[in-house]
Design a protein that fits this description.
cell membrane, AB_hydrolase_1, alpha/beta, Rossmann fold, 9 strands
Length: 430
């Protein structure tokens, strides 16, 4: 810079503009790097990892369900992020979910509770000509009015399935509790009541059992609790469940994959549900809750604290460990003998990778179990789409119906020769 006096003009060195341009370029590169990492854009797309035994039924299922063996392609810009898949499922539910016309049923329980479920008749004939009912258990605090449930039911109806959807006890905001109890992690009473009603009301129907997240735990536990619960059941599909609450509780306190944040948000939602029924849960003379439990509920910041202070007491569990052990499907699922499809996603921020050894080991040991693990999908996301906007139907919706269709077709093929003893039902092998 040359010497200057009064009134002289400053001149910027020629290196300065280049330096500013370099800083801008570095800033842009940093932002792009963060976007690529956070959206997981470099992750490849792939077909699900399928674990199964080479039985005639399993080979037939994989041949009849090509969607299980083909590449799952999520939306390009955000679909490889398990967090965004999960967040969009939670906030948006589904794109353009249909408005369903069903009948709400009320079932009185022995303890004074009133279970409710919604019944939707098929909109077309089933391709096998049979009477098939999907009995569906939604995720935690969910019900038949959730967008992802409505989308799945609408699609199933169009494929010829009757659908019965359990409304978790206390989940519907406009339905009052009639006893001091609401849904828990593994209580099968309400689901059993719904299934029993369907079997009585439609004596010719066969059942496809479907569970989402917490609902997956409930349906697998229900089927494994008693062999008679599997009567007239053609198959079961569980999506995004965690299998063991006892093993999961430690992972839910970790910040890895932001699970501690998800834990806090889910706990906050559970608080709202419980407090919306405060009069029924805490005010009845038969209630097992005390004022101290209500005080601890207000300060709870995790699902485990709510489970320990509130949920375990509905069924008289002495400790949180006992509650998680007895309410998880882990000790029951090996009793399930009907065809069982277990679906999870590797980038599910709620289900830790360590929990996936449970379905993997089960599929390796039991011939009736198929375990499908996708690279992407988040928690109950599984959106599909080209670049930005997802399609109305998800990969998950299509997989469940495709698997159910194949099972129904297999069962129809086996039925004519069952009387001769030359072949077996859908549970066995030729």
């Amino acid at each position: 810079m040359e010497p200057h006096g009064h009134g002289e003009v400053y001149t910027m060195p020629s290196e300065m503009p280049a330096m500013f341009d370099g800083m801008k370029l570095a800033a842009v590169a940093t932002v792009l790097y963060i976007i690529v990492r956070s959206l997981n854009l470099k992750s490849p797309t792939a077909a699900p990892d399928i674990i199964y035994q080479d039985t005639p039924l399993n080979l037939y299922l994989l041949k009849s369900c090509p969607i299980l063996t083909k590449e799952y392609i999520p939306p390009l810009l955000w679909g490889k992020s398990g967090h965004l898949q999960t967040a969009l499922y939670g906030k948006m539910g589904r794109v353009g979910s249909p408005h369903l016309c069903g009948l709400r049923m009320y079932l009185p329980m022995q303890d004074g509770a009133t279970a409710t479920f919604d019944l939707f008749e098929p909109l077309a004939d089933h391709h096998t000509g049979g009477d098939i009912t999907m009995v569906i258990c939604p995720g935690i605090g969910n019900h038949s009015e959730k967008h992802y449930i409505r989308t799945f039911v609408g699609y199933s109806q169009s494929q010829g399935y009757r659908c019965a959807v359990l409304n978790h006890l206390g989940a519907l905001p406009n339905i009052e509790l009639t006893s001091p109890r609401m849904f828990t992690y593994g209580c099968t009473w309400e689901f059993a009541a719904m299934v029993g009603y369907i079997k009585r009301a439609f004596p010719q129907t066969h059942l496809i059992v479907v569970g989402f997240s917490l609902g997956g735990n409930i349906v697998c536990k229900f089927l494994g609790e008693n062999q008679t619960n599997q009567d007239r059941v053609l198959c079961c599909v569980s999506v995004c469940q965690g299998y063991s609450a006892l093993r999961a509780q430690e992972t839910f306190l970790q910040w890895d994959q932001c699970r501690r944040l998800y834990n806090f948000l889910m706990a906050d939602n559970m608080k709202k549900i419980i407090l919306s029924h405060r009069g029924s849960l805490f005010g009845m003379s038969s209630s097992k809750m005390e004022d101290a439990d209500l005080s601890r509920l207000y300060t709870a910041t995790s699902l485990m604290q709510i489970d320990d202070n509130i949920m375990r007491k509905f069924h008289g569990h002495g400790t949180l460990k006992e509650y998680y052990e007895k309410e998880s499907c882990l000790q029951y699922i090996h009793n399930v003998t009907v065809p069982l499809l277990l679906v999870n996603s590797s980038d599910d921020p709620l289900v830790h990778q360590s929990l996936l050894t449970i379905p993997r080991t089960l599929a390796e040991k039991k011939s009736n179990v198929v375990f499908a693990l996708t690279l992407h999908g988040g928690h109950l996301g599984f959106f599909e789409g080209a670049v930005l906007f997802p399609q109305p139907l998800t990969w998950m919706d299509k997989v469940i119906v495709s698997y159910a269709n194949a099972i129904c077709q297999w069962d129809k093929r086996q039925s004519p020769c069952q009387a001769t003893g030359k072949c077996t039902s859908s549970r066995g092998e030729t």
